[in-house]
Amino acid sequence: MNDRTIRLLISFDGTAYKGWQRQPDAATIQGVLEEKLSLICNEPIVVHGAGRTDAGVHALGMVAHFHTKASHPVATVVRGLNGLLPGDIRIIQADDADPDFHSRFSAVAKTYRYDFFTGRVMDPTRRLYESHFPGFFDSRAVCECLKLLKGRHDFAAFEGTGSRDLTRQGGRGSIRTLLQVNLMPDPKIPLRFSFFLTGDGFLRHMVRNIVGTLITVGRGKMSRAEFTAVLNGRDRRAAGPTAPACGLFLVKIYYDRQELTFPDINT
Amino acid sequence: MNDRTIRLLISFDGTAYKGWQRQPDAATIQGVLEEKLSLICNEPIVVHGAGRTDAGVHALGMVAHFHTKASHPVATVVRGLNGLLPGDIRIIQADDADPDFHSRFSAVAKTYRYDFFTGRVMDPTRRLYESHFPGFFDSRAVCECLKLLKGRHDFAAFEGTGSRDLTRQGGRGSIRTLLQVNLMPDPKIPLRFSFFLTGDGFLRHMVRNIVGTLITVGRGKMSRAEFTAVLNGRDRRAAGPTAPACGLFLVKIYYDRQELTFPDINT
């Protein structure tokens, strides 16, 4: 019997990784964390993340937990991990959690941000952290469609092909509730925008498929009526392309429903 | 006789390069630009930059020029180059310049920015674009010393060892004039700051040596009197360490003295 459950708040640059989930022959965030934690705790450690992220997706506030018999103070775990981990994975915080805390099952919502630039020439120092959709972009039309996504919907139209049963936990099928949907222009950099999406769960590729479809709207190649038909039609083939991974950031995992109040600027 | 002088405005992520200047066995910005331009112009092209940048230093607004017999419209040069160049080098603009324009000799001033973070845990998605100086940082003490640098001084104390004659052009020795010196806190991210330095020229490693010395001041390990003695002593060994390259951005090259008016927030 393990005697402690330790919760980690993690930030990572996903550029060099094949996503979160451990794989036998590829660098993944979970794999690297487990390797370093096993050294620190001097026992094999399994890290449970709040969700999987795809290759190239970044995180500002991923949460994970693990069980251990090690008695290190949590500050030592933070310092030890940050000393052993490469600079593209950072531990922001570690806490002793309740024994029944589970980073995935205890989560009540998540916020994702998607950054993109619609200008002609991409800033090369931003190319790994925002997508480039050069050309015409009608942000008002996009906001009109974004509003339609708020609330409880069957998001099957935006579910990635090859979705696993994992995403269908709790018998919800492809029904999810979006609590916050925003498009924010960057206050300093013209033609740069961020989508913010907060929901009680996300299907595989759901954020990137929503973004790809909304970009199609922004380019004037899909009307609001067509967007409504895509959502209601629940057919992935009708939606737009999957937006690139590099613009996507897992911002926050919520464990307390009290925190779930959002000023909705666009809706 | 070449019949055209084309001026380029260039942005690059310096992470993967051994600096600006062409080297036989290393990837450099000048080397890559010359290779691609020679293909586009169908003749060997030499690119002249407004200055050299060190390995890992970034640029938002480097200026360079080249001579060519090719008759392509400048828009074709931009599109062609951006099509051939890797994503970490981007051409923002190309113009036909006066035949006597020279990116280096015609320049009247340059602005550099140096970004750094003083918090405990670095954002991994910023690690290649800002330096990490964790711990105590007394920004008021730094601003007091920064003020002392404004104006015409012998900056020998901040000149990198192994400086070449290049930096001594025009018989100025190590005398330069700083027109703008600022320290700006990031309005959104606590504990993140940027130095802005504009001058009529910079010695080798001058910005990074000034920053390294000012960080020493910010940590409370050098007084204002000691900083003054460093500047006046003109002895490199008395100054602080050279700050890492990754936080440094070449922001702008000025060719028109009319543009040289700066709101000086800290001075």
Quick structural gist:
Chain A has 267 residues and is α+β, with helices and mostly antiparallel strands. The first copy, chain A, contains five helices and ten strands.
Overall description:
Two copies of one chain form a homodimer. The first copy, chain A, has 267 residues and is of the alpha+beta class. Chain A contains five helices and ten strands, in the order E-H-E-E-H-E-E-E-H-E-E-E-H-H-E. In chain A, strands 1, 2, 3, 4, 5, 6, 7, 8, 9 and 10 form a ten-stranded mixed β-sheet that branches. In chain A, a hairpin with a 6-residue loop joins strand 8 (175-185) and strand 9 (192-199). In chain A, helix 1 packs across helix 2 (74-84), helix 3 packs antiparallel against helix 4 and helix 3 packs parallel to helix 5 (224-233). The A-B interface holds A 11-13, 58, 60, 82, 87-92, 121-125, 127-129, 249 and B 11-13, 58, 60, 82, 87-92, 121-125, 127-129, 249.
Q: In total, how many beta strands of chain A?
A: 10
- Look at the structure and name the CATH superfamily of the largest domain in chain A: Pseudouridine synthase I, catalytic domain, C-terminal subdomain
Biggest interface pair, residues each? A-B, 21 and 21 residues
Report the end-to-end length of chain A measured between terminal Cα atoms: 49 Å
Task: Describe the global form of chain A.
Answer: globular
Cα-atom radius of gyration of chain A:
19 Å
How would a textbook summarize the main sheet of chain A? 10 strands, mixed
Judging by the overall fold, what is the CATH architecture of the largest domain in chain A? Answer: 2-Layer Sandwich
State the name of the first-level CATH class of the largest domain in chain A.
Alpha Beta
Number of helices of chain A: 5
Can you tell me the CATH topology of the largest domain in chain A?
Alpha-Beta Plaits
Mean pLDDT across the residues of chain A is 93
- Catalogue the unreliable spans of chain A: none
How much of the sequence lies in strands of chain A comes to 25-35%
Oligomer: homodimer
